[in-house]
Amino acid sequence: MEVAVIGASMTKFGQRDAWIRELLSQAGEECLTDAGVTPDDVEHLYVSNMASGEFEGQTGIMNLLAHDLGVLPAYSERVDQTSSSGGAGIYEAWQSVASGASDMTLLVGGEKMTHKTTGQATDIIASITHPDEYKHGVTLPSFAGMTARHYLERFDAPRESLARVAVKNHKNGVDNPKAQFQKEITMEKALESPIIADPLRLYDFCPITDGSAALMFTTEERAKEITDEYALVSGIGGATDTHVVHERDDPTIMGGVVESSKQAYEMAGLGPDDLDVAELHDMFTILEFLQLEGIGVADQGTAWELAMDGATAKDGDLPINTSGGLKSKGHPLGASGVAQGVEIYEQLVGGAGPRQVEADTALACNVGGFGNCVITTIMEAAE
Amino acid sequence: MEVAVIGASMTKFGQRDAWIRELLSQAGEECLTDAGVTPDDVEHLYVSNMASGEFEGQTGIMNLLAHDLGVLPAYSERVDQTSSSGGAGIYEAWQSVASGASDMTLLVGGEKMTHKTTGQATDIIASITHPDEYKHGVTLPSFAGMTARHYLERFDAPRESLARVAVKNHKNGVDNPKAQFQKEITMEKALESPIIADPLRLYDFCPITDGSAALMFTTEERAKEITDEYALVSGIGGATDTHVVHERDDPTIMGGVVESSKQAYEMAGLGPDDLDVAELHDMFTILEFLQLEGIGVADQGTAWELAMDGATAKDGDLPINTSGGLKSKGHPLGASGVAQGVEIYEQLVGGAGPRQVEADTALACNVGGFGNCVITTIMEAAE
C-alpha cells in the first residue's frame, strides 16, 4: 500500500499568545482546508506532543482536538517520542494507512513552551535524559558542547564551520514567514555570541518555541481522486540508540540516524545520492554535521566541509534546512518533526514559495533526546 | 496480514515500592521470556503510559526501556490515550505488524501512581477532562455518579445491581495473584460503604494502582514457527466520543464503545453472540453496564439484569472480567488496557489457571476519560 501526503499546514512559530489547544486546532483546520477534505473524512487523528501535561496541566489533548476539529468519531491518540514526537507521528500515520486501519489520517504536532521560564522549560526537557546521567547534572546542551569539541579536534574542523550552519539556516529562515526568526545573522555575530556550552555559543542553539504543524495522509489511490498535488512516503524507518550517551562507542556516530536512514533507503530503494533536499534536526549546529554523516551524504568527519564550501546552502548541491531549520524556524518539540515533513512536502509539490528548490526526492531526519531515538522519512513527488 | 499474540506478562498490581522504570522493565523481561524470543528479535517497542512526567518527573521512558531491555536499535515510542493508553498500544502494535513495519513488536504498559497523595493523583487524572467542564469542578467520579443515578431511575434498575458488579469482580480477583485486592466482599459491605458520588459508593470505584503489563505481537506465520500457543487479533477498532460529556445526546450510550466494537466485529466477521469471555473497563461499576450495552451483548437499559441473574459471573453465559477487572485488579492507567489483553490472551491459550473458562473468542474494551476514547479488541484462539 503506497501512502500519500495530500495536505500540509503550520502555524506561525515563535512566542505565541495561544494555548496548545488553539495552536493544534489552527494547524489542524488549515490542513483540512489545504488537503481539500472534510472533518467527516478523517478516520485517525494523531497528535505529536511531548509534554502538554507538564507545560500546561492539560492532558487528553488528542481527544480535545478531535472534538474541536469535528472529526468524531475518528480514532485519536497522542504520540510521544520527546523531541522526535513529530517524526514518530509521521511513522504512526504511515502505519495507520499502510495497515488498512485508516484511509484518511490527520497528524497534528505541537508544543506550547514559552509561557514557562527558560529554567522551567529546560527542566521539563532535561527529564528526557537518562536518570544515571541526569543526576550528574548533564543536560542536552552540555552533550552538544562536548560532542562539538570532540568533533572539531578529532577531524581538524574549523570552529567557523559550525557558525556557517547557523548563518545558512538563518538565511533560509528569512524566506519562511512561519519561522520564529526571519533575520540573517553574520559570521561575526555567531562567533561572538555568548558561550552556552563551550565551544558552542548562543547561535549554535535553537530557541524555545510555541507552534503547531500538520500533515494529511491517505492511500495513493485516494490521493489521485482528490488532487494531483501530492507526495508519496516512499521510505520510513525509526530506531533507538542507547539512552546513556556516554556508553556510545563513538560520540560522533548517531546510531539512530544510521539505522533509521538505512531502513528508509531500503524501503524506498534509494540512496543518499538520490536526495534533492533534506531537513535535518539542527537543534544544535553540530547535529547537522552528525546527521549529514549518519544519512550517508558525507563520510565521517567530513560534513563540515559541506558547510564551508556551500554545498548545503539553498543553491548548493544538496540544500539542507530550506525551511530555516530548527535554528531559525524554532523548535516546538512535538511540532518540529511534522514541520520538517511540511517543508519537504511543500518542496515536492512546488509550494515552497521563495524557498523553492528543484526536488523530486526529499528526506527528513527528526532526532529525539541526544539521538536517543530517530525517525527518517523519505518522500517523493508523485509521477 | 494476520497479527498474533505470542506472549504476555504482568507485574503484581498494587502499591509497589518500585518506580515506573522498574515496573516496565519487569513486565517487559517476563514477556520476552514468556514469548520465547530474544531482545534482538524485537523490532518495535511501544510503551503505553499516560503521565510518567507528571507522576515522576521522568520522560523518555520508552527510550529508557528499550535500553534497559537491550532491544536496541528497536524503534521505541510512547502511546498516550489517557486511561485507554493500553488499548491504544494494542492498536499501534497491531498496526506496526499489519503494515509490515515490524515483525516482532513488544508492548509494555505501565503507570506508577501510589506515591502521590490521592488528591495529587486525582488532579493529574482530572487534567483529562474538557477545560470547559473541568472549570466547573466536574471530575470523572462525579460523571459516574450522575450517570448511575440517571441509569437506575430511567431503567428502573435496583441499586443492588451495581453492587453485584463489585461483588462479582472482587470474587474473580481472588483467583488472580497479580490483582491488587484478592478478597471477596459482601453485598452488605458494598452497599454500606461510604458515598463517593451519590449513588455510587467506595466499592463502585477502582483503586489507584502501580503496575505494568506486556504483550508480544508478531505475524501469524512467525507465531507458528515459534509456538503452538498463540492467539490472533482478529478484530480491532478505536473511536473518539465528544470530549464534552454533557453534549452527548444520551448519557447512557457510550458512542466510542458502540463505534469501536462495530469496527472490531466487522473486521473479525463476528457479533456479540460469538463472545465467550470479555474484559470490560469497570473503572466505575456503572461502566460495566454501559459497555455490555455498547458492545451489543445487552439491549439499552437491560445490562443490569445480567448482573442480577449471574449471567456475567465466571460460571455464567458470558463471564465478564475474569481477571477481577479494574475493580479488584487495580487500574494503573497505561497498564490497564494491556492487562485486559493479557487476560483474554491467557483465557484463549489456556493459561488462566483457576480463572480459566472455556473460550475461543474474547473481547476487551478499554475506555479513556469518561468514554472520550475507546479501543475494542477481539482475539481468537489459534486453530
UniProtKB/TrEMBL annotation, chains A, B:
What range(s) does the Thiolase N-terminal domain occupy? Answer: 3-221
Keyword terms of this UniProt record = Isoprene biosynthesis
Q: Which GO terms describe its molecular function?
A: acyltransferase activity, transferring groups other than amino-acyl groups
- This chain's protein is named Thiolase family protein
Please give one Pfam family short name. Answer: Thiolase_N
Q: Origin organism of this chain?
A: Haloarcula terrestris
For this protein's source organism, the top of the classification is: Archaea, Methanobacteriati, Methanobacteriota, Stenosarchaea group, Halobacteria
Query: What is one Gene Ontology biological process annotated in the Swiss-Prot or TrEMBL record?
Result: isoprenoid biosynthetic process
**Superkingdom, according to UniProt?**
Archaea
Give the residue spans that cross the bilayer: none
Residues in Thiolase C-terminal domain copies? 237-380
